[in-house]
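sorry for the late reply, my laptop died twice this morning and i had to redo everyting from scratch. anyway the thing you sent over, i finally got around to it. pasting the sequence first so we're on the same page, its 327 residues, then the predicted structure underneath. double check i copied it right bc i was rushing
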Amino acid sequence: MNPVAVDLMGGDSGPAVIVEGVLAALEDMGGEIVVVGNEEAVRPLVGDSRVRIVHASEEILMSDDPASAPRRKRDASMVVGATLLKAQEVSAFITFGNSGAAMATALVKVGRIRGVARPAITIELPVPGATSTVLLDAGANTEVIPQWLHQFAVMGSVYCSARLGIDLPRVGLLSIGEEAGKGNALVKETYPLLAEEPSINFLGNVEGRDIMSDRVDVVVTDGFTGNVVLKSLEGAAHLFAHAVLAALSEGDDGVLDAALPKLLPLWNQMTPDDTGAAALLGVNGLFLIGHGASNARAVSSAVRNARQLAEAGVVQTIRRLEGSAGE
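ok and here's the structure:
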């Protein structure tokens, strides 16, 4: 299998943190990894023969216009990496740069799988004591039609099986009630499409409270709602964590020290660092977008998970289910 490629430029902390994560992934899984960036700047950071550097003279900044940047900066690391993916020289490409530009680059340089109308950002929401919940779309498409949600459900089910090892993932349609007749016009029109889709295990409508539970494996919604859900859960998790620590700190001496060993495993389950990056499903290659503030652990996880998805043939399965052989 071809190696995974990682964009070293564009992250908030610069290439050093990303290189640290790449090297950690190599120690864990072996093989070879391709990194894309300014060779003169990154060569002193690498120092490992298993890391192959592909030079890119430009960088897409967070301040760049997402739509025009891939066309203006044709030798940017993000564009060069996407070109490697399109040419199938690498099995997956991960960037931690400008997410809007990453979306545009994936569409312009890699293209969509034939038959897929829109790609979807696919994230994993950690659930303590259970497998994660896969949510899509998390922000790529703020307005959708039922046929797109139908495709999201199929792609999300494929992803969930590959990443989490669930043979028949339970797919839920996010709504304001469990009954088939609940929801807005979009949800009501989407429901029968999912109910009649033979390739998925459709559970029916699910509510917001079900997302962080073991009731459902894949939750399908539009990108506007999905992004609001994601940010709301992130905010609630941080608020709860700070509230618990503040409450324990006000107790007797030693209460916090005694509680931390029990709280840390829970915190480790809740952190997104074990996923590392979100897959942009629907493009004709395995393209992942990580947070600009990702630490080395998140980078390492992104590399390992990208290799797992590549080995599982996620893109190839979506091509087959959408009736396309790909190009």
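The chain is about 45% helix and 15% strand.
thats about all i looked at so far, will dig more tmrw
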